[in-house]
Amino acid sequence: MKKIGILTSGGDCQALNATMRGVVKGLENLFGEIEIYGFKDGYKGLIYGNYQKMKPMEFSGILGKGGTILGTSRVPFKMLDIPTDDGIDKVPAMVKTYKKLELDCLVVLGGNGSQKTANRLSQEGLNVVGLPKTIDNDIWGTDMTFGFQSAVDVATHAIDCIYTTAESHSRVFVIETMGHKVGWITLHAGIAGGADVILLPEIPYDMKKIYKTIDKRTKQGKNFTIIVVAEGAISKEVAKLPKKERKQVIAERPYPSIAYEIADKIREKYTSDVRVALPGHTQRGGSPDAYDRVISSLFGAKAAEMIKEKDFGKLVVMLNGEVTAIPLEETAGKLKYVDPNNQMIQEAKTLGISFGD
Question: Quick one: which H or E segment has residue 18?
Answer without folding.
Answer: helix 16-31
